Amino acid sequence: MRGERVHPSETPVPVLEFCRFQYALGCPGQPGSGVLSLPRFLVFLRYQWYYEYPLLTYLEYPMLIAQDLILLLCVFHFNGNVYRALPYIALFVSSWFILTLQKWVIDLAMNLCTFISAASKFAQLQCLWKTRDSGAVSALTWSLASYTCATRIVTTLMTTSDLTILIRFVVMLALNIWVTATVLRYRKAIFKAE
Questions:
Q1: What is the pLDDT of residue 190?
Q2: What span, in angstroms and rounded, lies between the C-alpha atoms of 81 and 62?
Q3: pTM
Q4: Least crowded by CB within 10 Å, which of 81, 135, 144, 147?
Q5: Is 136 exposed, middle or buried (0-12, 13-18, 19+ CB in 10 A)?
């Protein structure tokens, strides 16, 4: 991948997590990658735990959370101030308990995560439309995100049939495909110009 920067995706795939880790290390002043995805993973894990869904439907989320915590600590360590990570960690630990105080809180948090994820994909699309350049965005990463969402739809239908989760993955699948198509469209335009 010719040193491209990969846009972080919230899709739980180890390959995408590795790409996000490389992305964050390439921008040591920007701890936002781990900080923004960690709450989504935490909400999703807590949601599935709260509703007592089968362990295999959310088994990777504890590992993804651990990866993001390590990423966050590494970014702060390489910036020279690990202690700045403590408020983030305290916030995430306290939110684990706050999310399930009332049923509506966890449901609202899950829906807000879907909205925020969709907004981030629209921002990526808007950036692509404005620049008409997909050189810094990996079509492979977005294709993997699309594939993951499609498989998540199937597994959700087979295990829990939770409407909130299904809506989330259908929306994410549509947007991931849209971003992938946009990346490929502008990539071909660049090749034709050369």
A1: 52
A2: 25
A3: 0.73
A4: 81
A5: middle
